[in-house]
Write a structure and sequence with these properties.
single chain, mainly beta, 2 helices, TTHA0802/YceI-like_sf, signal, YceI family protein, Lipid/polyisoprenoid-bd_YceI
């Protein structure tokens, strides 16, 4: 029995070692900003809502200096309608609604995830790359792509996405058996900026470290 247990432990250790690529380097995200937009069917400025949600953690994995992938965890409990400092009663009500079973069910699904799988360079475009990856919301995973400006220098990564759309119904984000849902567009827009270093607010480039 002891020999069998020892053999099993050795197999686990070997699997872990061989699962790690030689030269892998993990770099954490230290600066992030995620915004969202939702619309009613009759899309006007007064019927558009927007807000923020926070990144819980993020990292990029490199093999030597080649970016392999990225893993990002979003804290759905932090989702907020309106300005971060807003105490507007309507925005507070909407925030609570977004967190409830009507939409994101944050008690049951406190985290959303995005796994970046590849980045394809673009030429002659407003954005220099197309980002590919898998997003998981409320336990539902979908493969998505979106344009972004991506800058990679050694182990410094900056990604600034375009505003791109997700279909909320793909992730079961809707009022259950309610007429209210028919007045809301299925498309919700997302835009984010993330960096492995603190970004300068004016030009969105990494802040130079003081020597």
């Amino acid at each position: 029995m002891k020999r069998l247990l020892l053999f099993a432990m050795m197999c686990v250790c070997m699997s872990f070692v061989f699962g790690q690529k030689k030269g892998d380097k993990v770099v954490k995200v230290t600066s992030s900003e995620i915004r969202w937009w939702g619309y009613k069917v009759v899309k006007t400025v007064p019927t558009t809502h927007s807000g923020t949600v926070k990144l819980k953690s993020g990292k990029f994995t490199f093999d030597k200096t080649v970016l392999i992938d990225g893993e990002f965890v979003i804290d759905m409990k932090s989702i907020m309608a309106g300005d971060v400092s807003s105490q507007d009663a309507d925005m507070v009500k909407l925030t609570n609604d977004l967190k409830s079973t009507n939409f994101f069910e944050v008690k049951k699904f406190p985290l959303a995830k995005f796994h970046l799988t590849k980045i394809i360079p673009l030429a002659n475009s407003e954005y220099n790359s197309t980002v590919y990856g898998d997003v998981t919301i409320k336990g539902v995973r979908k493969t998505i792509t979106f344009p972004a400006n991506v800058y990679i220098t050694q182990f410094t990564v900056v990604i600034e996405s375009a505003k791109f759309s997700l279909n909320r119904r793909d992730f079961k984000v809707f009022y259950q058996s309610s007429l209210k849902d028919y007045f809301i567009k299925n498309e919700m827009d997302i835009q984010f900026k993330i960096s492995t270093e603190k970004l300068d607010n004016e030009n969105r480039t990494p802040v130079k470290k003081k020597k």
